[in-house]
Amino acid sequence: MGGEDCSCLSVRGATFAWHSDSAPRFAQRSGYSVALFSAILCLFVAASAFAQAEFAKANENFAQGHFKEAIAGYEALVHESQWNANLFYNLGNAYFRTRDFGRAILNYERALALDNHHPEATANLQIARDEARALELQPSKLERYLQFASINQYTIAAAVAFWLGLFGIVAVIFARRRSPALISLSILCLLVGGMAIWAVHTLDNGSEGRGLAIVTGNDVQARLATADTANSVLALPPGSEIKILSTRGDWMYAALPNDLRGWIQTKNAEQVRL
Amino acid sequence: MQRRILLALIAIVGIAQIALADSPSVTAVLSNSEATVGETVDLQIKVTGPGDARPPEEISIDGLEIHSTGTSRQFEIHNFSTSSSVTYNYTILPLRAGRFMIPPQTVTAGGKILRTPELALNVADVPGQQTKTRPGRSSQGAQSQSANTGDLVFAELVVPKKTAYVGEIVPVQIRMGFDARVHPRLTEPPDITGQGFTSQKLQQSSQNLETINGRPFEVVTFKTAIAAARAGKFEIGPVKAKAQVVVPRRRNAPRSRSPFDLFDLDDPFSDPFFSNPFAQFGERRDIQISSEPVALEVKPLPPNAPPSFSGAIGSFTMATDAKPKSVQVGDPITVTTAISGRGNFDRVNAPLLEDDRGWHKYPPSSKFKQDDEVGISGTKTFEMVVSPNENKQTLPVLAFSYFDPAKGQYVTLHSEPTAITVQGGAPAPAVAAQQPASSPATAARGHASVANSTKPQDILYQLTEPSRTVASFEPLYARRGFLLAQSLPLAALLVFAGWKVRRARLDDREARRIGALQHEAADLMHKLRRDDVSPREYYAEASRVVQLKAALASRNRTVDPNAVDAETAAETFKLDSDSRDRLRRLFEQNDEWQYSGTHNGPGEISPEKRRDVLELIEHLK
Fold first, then answer.
1. B364 touches chain A (CB under 8 A)
2. Which of A143, B150, B598, B599 has the fewest CB atoms in 10 Å of its CB?
3. What is the 8-class DSSP label of residue B81?
4. What pLDDT score does A157 carry?
């Protein structure tokens, strides 16, 4: 009996010993995690501080009239993916000062793509367009109506409506008594979700969607075929909007202002969305 | 019969007239007694009278080249008198200036020897430059060839003017003549050699048979145009070409005279080959043909060309049209301009808009329709698309400038103002804006145009702070976070559905239990209505029905019917005291029958008792 107790105790002791062994390991692991988290946080903070310093330095260069240096500073931040609307807006201003209206317009467009309600970018974009005589793609009437909300807002609306509709349908399926109001509400939610998805698709493929690009080269001609000797379709001043439809080698086929289509060399235009 | 007699009389009279005709006579005339060197004059020797006539054997005069060009005969009947004559035709080519006397020529006719009168020909020298090379002994055009071929071909370069301006189109004609008997074949087309000018593609315009110096020549005419590239004095040409011709084979032995070689001119065609091609074969020989060069003085264009001058030189007119004439702001208008005339159309560019403020213009397209073989006259049509950025009443005036070489000055053509109607947009500013106009698409989009302001706008200030968060161009639906977030409502939906399923299953089990209880109660009620049931069974079944009804009626459906007693049932159905007592008695009698095995009362249940129990049970609701 005593042996059993002892064994039992020993078993219990072993069990206890195991617990007492794993506790420091757990603590050690937790320590590593905290250290890793702290390191990441520190890196993030340091990167943010560095980006702010770079931004401030580029602003200083701009203020001193060193526009090329300012552009280099802003572009470095862009390459580091420190994207924000104000960065692109300031970069657009710097290009404007060097009279590179094509890239100025491109960066104002990027600022507005990140922040649809950026008043300074909107104002300067208009000035740059007028300076460059840039051509704009004309959105369809439907697209203009849909532009009262952004793609992201439509996406959220679509998600909420979709899930509500789905919950409603499940409730209707399992309900003992099927309520017409619940059925109607569920169908309405699904319809709203479907319309929101369609709006996302329309805007994403529209004149200001993912295919939107800005002509950055000078004396750019859209041509009928992928050759410099092909007939010209339209002369595109810098800053003109085009919508890329497809690419073939060094050429891209694009929808042009005034409902035209033509081939443009890829080096002469840049996409707004990075 | 009478007709035969008449014909016989006519024949007799005719024969008599011939027999009584005058003796033969001869005359000689020159088509012109005055000529210049190189200008041909015709000589006719006419022999009138009966009998055969023999022409002069040869006419040879130093300084004149005389060739026979043929013989013609005339036979006339006039008032029953007949006459016949033979005319020998010659062509005289003066080779030098001077007074030449053509001596009397001896002609034999009707067995008589006749002599022509002496004729005088005054030949004057030719002033100016000689641009032509004609066949003959003094021919320069094909001197590099044998003496034989020199007489067979010639080339001429015809340049209508001696002075021109830089870039002015000068039409040029090249005439190449081949003796018709040499069966020529051009192996290399003519080429205008020289520097300092450009020439257009050579076009063959005609091929004619001409008689030159009494000899038939096939003359091929080519047309082209040249334009001088710089000022100065140039030599155009010579024109060079290569051809193959058929000439008689050379023979060492002196050949016999041919009917062509009347004047012993060493004419290669005096070879019998040409009188009888089958007598012997000729040989095909390559020859080079060249013309004399032509001098051309090229003057520079005067300075101060108008802004719309693009290098067009010539004489032009301009016509303009526009469609449509009623548009909205930003809509395209196609302006068609036709420039017609004569000149260097390759330098004719689209006319310029004199005032393009408030307009957006697109690159023009052009097409040219030529009216001649070399493309120096025709109509060049330009189509230019313009779109108004603001309200306009007229199209902008188009200006086209060219240099008129005839006048020696620049000429600017202006289009007539074309009235149009533009709807929408802001009215055109009275003061010219310094800012360029915005694009039509901008105007169509409805933005306020900065171009209308009189002062150029500057961009807004730099922003000193970057945005708080790093943004992404990726749309929300494509972001990983958004997709992961969808797992939350999905999980909630799954939980909700699971809960609903479980509820449904529970409800189903309860329903089945209730159904079973109801079924059992109905069966028991059916048994209670029968008379053959023993009292023990009757009370047991009656009590069971009460328990089942109580269990079904209870709010909590999970009540076990076996646990229901008389008090519980009475409470469930809220019975009054009388019914409560009757129910209690029912349960007591059941207990008695179940546990005692006997009954205090009779062995059977009276119908009143049965009715009372059934009434009690049926009123339990």
1. no
2. B598
3. E
4. 94
CB of B505 less than 8 A from some CB of A: no
Q: Residue B462 corresponds to which amino acid?
A: Q
What span, in angstroms and rounded, lies between the C-alpha atoms of A180 and B187? Answer: 98
Which chain A residue has the Cα nearest residue B469? Answer: A84
- Contact of B595 with chain A, judged by CB distance below 8 Å, is answered with no
The topology under which CATH files domain B308-441 is: Immunoglobulin-like (2.60.40)
* Alpha helices in chain A, H assignment, sequence order: 2-63, 67-79, 85-97, 101-114, 119-132, 141-146, 151-174, 180-204
Does residue A163 sit in the same domain as residue A196?
Answer: yes
Chain A residue numbers with beta carbons less than 8 Å from the beta carbon of B362 are: 234-235
B91, β-bridge pairs: B42, B67
Q: Where are the beta strands (DSSP E) in B95-127?
A: 98-102, 106-109, 112-115, 119-124
Chain A contact present for B436, CB below 8 A: yes
- pLDDT band of residue A11 (cuts 50, 70, 90) is very low
Q: Taking the domains of chain B in order of start, what are their residue ranges? A: 2-124, 147-297, 308-441, 509-618
- Whether residue A17 has pLDDT greater than 90: no
What tokens were used for A56? 């401030």
Of all residues in chain B, the one with the smallest CA distance to A159 is B486
Decide which of A102, A132, A162 is a domain's last residue: A132
Residue B546 has pLDDT above 80, yes or no: yes
**pLDDT higher than 50, residue A15:** no
Considering the four listed CATH numbers 1.10.1660, 2.60.40, 2.40.10, 3.30.310, the one that applies to the domain covering B2-124 is: 2.60.40
Mutation pick from A136, A153, A260 vs chain B, by most beta carbons of B within 10 Å, is A136
Cβ(B326)–Cβ(B420) below 8 Å? yes
Q: Residue B500 and residue A174: Cβ atoms within 8 Å? A: yes
Q: Which of B439, B447, B486 sits opposite A134 (nearest CB)?
A: B439
Instruction: Identify the residue whose tokens are 């306020």.
Output: B448
Residue A65 lies in a domain: yes
Q: Are residues A78 and A122 in the same domain?
A: yes
**CB–CB contact A114 B473 (8 Å):** yes
**CATH number for the B147-297 domain, one of 1.10.10, 3.20.20, 3.30.360, 2.60.40?**
2.60.40
Angstrom distance (rounded) from CA B226 to CA B303: 23
Q: What is the pLDDT of residues B93-136, one digit of tens each?
A: 888 888 888 888 888 887 788 888 888 888 877 644 333 344 44
Q: Does A8 have pLDDT greater than 60? A: no
Parent domain of A150:
141-204
- pLDDT digit string (tens) for B311-331? 899 989 999 988 888 887 777
Q: Which pLDDT tens digit goes with each residue over B448-457?
A: 333 343 445 6
Is B441's CB within 8 Å of A232's CB? Answer: no
Which of A52, A83, A129 is facing B472, going by the closest CB pair? A83
What is the predicted ipTM? 0.76
Going by pLDDT thresholds of 50, 70 and 90, the confidence category of residue B402 is very high
Query: Please, which pLDDT band fits residue A266 given cuts at 50, 70 and 90?
Result: very high
Residues sharing a CB contact under 8 Å with residue B130, sequence separation 6 or more, in sequence order = B38, B292
